[in-house]
Amino acid sequence: MTTAASLAYAEDFLSEDDHLVAARRRSDDVGVIPVGPGGGAALSFLASVVQAKSVAEIGTGTGVSGLWLLRGMQPDGVLTSVDLEAEHQRLARETFTEAGYAPQRFRLIAGAGLDVMPRLTDAGYDVVFLDGDKVEYGEYLDQAMRLVRPGGIIVFDNALWHDRVADPAQRDPETSAIRDVVQRVRNDERLRSVLLPLGDGLLAAQLLA
Ligand SMILES: C[S@@+](CC[C@H](N)C(=O)[O-])C[C@H]1O[C@@H](n2cnc3c(N)ncnc32)[C@H](O)[C@@H]1O
């Protein structure tokens, strides 16, 4: 079995530059928990593999995941990111701008994921990344299935949720909602999926063409 030391080694496989370190500091300042370096690297890799020009994200935070995604996207790609908290998005804007991204590369929408997602374009996204309210993960999956283009990828953060998802005795609303989504994704024949044990768990699924 993989040891904690090996998991930590994989998590830190790619190091973060000053812009990501600054974005993490902003997250700390406002009490946001961003993806770890391993999860961030996986997001960047997935965006690159599908040559993403259009990515939707629910849960901007202060832009750690967004910066990793932008770095994997095509040079003219646009990140659309939604967050309830205008202050988090103000800090994310700082993150993206300081990292050298022009304003036309990112579209920040302040609002609740479930209010905004129905207004986004059907099959308009190469990657849809979900990292907002864990209790809403089931509804995010319904929306993401509509938003992602065939061949595109849906990704959920916190798929292992602090080791609670794997423990059937844990039945709090967040854990149950995430466990439900993991099961739905695994059983959906329209999706090819993988559960990556990076950070707090990254569930990725490709919509088959
Ligand atoms: C875990 S943080 C996101 C971290 C970010 N994805 C990263 O890795 O850098 C979750 C974010 O989701 C936002 N959020 C919580 N509930 C939400 C909802 N219902 N709709 C949109 N955003 C929400 C919070 O304000 C917070 O900024």
Automatic annotation (TrEMBL):
Keyword S-adenosyl-L-methionine listed: yes
UniProt keyword annotations, A-Z: Methyltransferase, S-adenosyl-L-methionine, Transferase
Keyword Transferase recorded: yes
One annotated GO biological process: methylation
Single GO molecular function: S-adenosylmethionine-dependent methyltransferase activity
Organism domain of life: Bacteria
InterPro entries found in the cross-reference section: Cation-dep_OMT, SAM-dependent_MTases_sf, SAM_O-MeTrfase
Name of the molecule in the record: O-methyltransferase
